[in-house]
Amino acid sequence: MADYEYTTELDVRFRDLDAMGHVNNAVYATYLEQARADYYADIIDVPLPEADTVLVNLSIAYQRPITADERVTVALGVGDLGESSIPMEYEIRTGEGVAATAETVQVVFDRETGDSRPIPQDWRDRITRYAQSVE
């Protein structure tokens, strides 16, 4: 499991809840997306919509439900970077502990051709520097 060097806090919104009063399973993916967007903005210094990455893999292991009265923390760690791929591991946590773990892979792509392209060197440098600064 990766070290979770980055965290972001999220509120559970009423719209996140299902008929049983739990956060709907699909919303967990939205929490991951928000954590990714925060990471890209804060660490890579690129807004996620401008990052030219696509999500190619998403896996979530649910451990317990989240309810309306809980605050959510998403912890994120970046794994070994590939040529064009950025793997991330997550824990979705509340005051009650870990609610889910997840993994995603984003791939950097060329908007004109749709082909993958190498991760920009300045991104690699920022990701590496940040990870080293929190060790």
TrEMBL record:
Its EC number is 3.1.2.-. Keywords: Hydrolase. GO terms for molecular function: hydrolase activity. Coiled coil: none annotated. Pfam families: 4HBT_2. Belongs to the 4-hydroxybenzoyl-CoA thioesterase family. PANTHER family: 4-HYDROXYBENZOYL-COA THIOESTERASE FAMILY MEMBER, NOVEL THIOESTERASE SUPERFAMILY DOMAIN AND SAPOSIN A-TYPE DOMAIN CONTAINING PROTEIN (0610012H03RIK). This is Acyl-CoA thioesterase. The lineage of its organism: Archaea, Methanobacteriati, Methanobacteriota, Stenosarchaea group, Halobacteria.
